[in-house]
Amino acid sequence: MAVTVKARTQVVIPPKLQEQAGFKPGDQLEWKASRGKLTLVAKPAKPHPLMEALAECHRQAKAAGTDKLTAKEINAIIKQARKERREQQAG
Description:
Layout: H1 15-21, E1 29-34, E2 37-42, H2 49-64, H3 71-90
Antiparallel strand pairs: 1-2
């Protein structure tokens, strides 16, 4: 699709191209320029705070060497932590 560069600085992305590129209303886009070529790239959406928290938990688990625990081991740790919490609350 050919377009003509005009004096106005705004750029309109035709709907068909938006659809082909997978751009949706509200997406953040970033321009990249090099030797007669402009590239428009979708910026990744900021992850949900819960996803960021999970990623941080995974980093900490990996650093502690506990990222390879089985479900059985994880459940045992949770059970022990709950038992200790109950004992603390009781007194």
